[in-house]
Amino acid sequence: MAMDPLSISASIIALLQATTTVLSICYDFRACIKNAPWSLTRVVDEVKSLRNILETLEQISQTDVSTHSKRRPAFELLCDQNGPLASCKRELLYLEEK
Predict the structure, then answer these.
(1) Measured between alpha carbons, how far is 35 from 71 in angstroms, rounded to an integer?
(2) What percent of the chain has pLDDT over 70?
(3) Torsion of Cα atoms, 88 then 83 then 63 then 70, to 10°
(4) Contact status, residue 3 vs residue 86, Cβ threshold 8 Å
(5) pLDDT in tens, 70-92
(6) What DSSP character marks residue 62?
(7) In this predicted structure, what is the pLDDT of residue 69?
(8) Within a 10 A sphere around the Cβ of 58, how many other Cβ atoms?
(9) What pLDDT is recorded for position 84?
(10) Which residues contact 8 (CB under 8 A, 6 or more apart)?
(11) Residue of 74, 77, 95 lying closest to 86 (CA atoms)
(12) What pTM does this model have?
């Protein structure tokens, strides 16, 4: 099943929103405690790195159609229901709930 460029961008944007939410929760939690545990700092750093990668992917997905058509199969694999971005989104939502 082929995805259109808009669906690919929407998938990436949904992940960006999830990373922003998780970061916000982590920052709020860190502000409430005196000494942030190492694991919280590590989560914040990893989610920031993920957000940077997603922002780059989102920018690439917005390139002109002729270039994008060559990249579409790679983006479709990333955005597939069982792909790495879907797995990442599930983990972020789990982290947000926790």
Answers:
(1) 44
(2) 84
(3) 160
(4) no
(5) 666 777 777 777 777 778 888 88
(6) T
(7) 63
(8) 16
(9) 78
(10) 61, 72, 75, 76, 79
(11) 77
(12) 0.67
| CA dihedral sign, ordered 59, 19, 12, 78 | positive
Q: What is the pLDDT of residues 36-74, one digit of tens each?
A: 777 888 888 888 888 888 888 887 777 655 555 666 677
Q: Please give the Cα distance from 55 to 60 (Å, whole number).
A: 9
Structure tokens at 35: 């000494």
Rounded distance between C-alpha atoms, residue 92 and residue 2, angstroms:
25
What does the alpha-carbon distance between residue 22 and residue 82 come to, in Å, rounded to a whole number?
22
Q: Tell me which amino acid residue 56 is.
A: T
Angle between helix axes 65-79 and 5-32 (nearest 10 degrees) is: 60
The one-letter amino acid code at 57 reads: L
Residues 6+ apart with CB under 8 A from 71: 60, 61, 63
Only one residue has tokens 């599930």, namely 90
Q: What local confidence, expressed as pLDDT, does residue 66 receive?
A: 55
- The type of residue at 88 is C
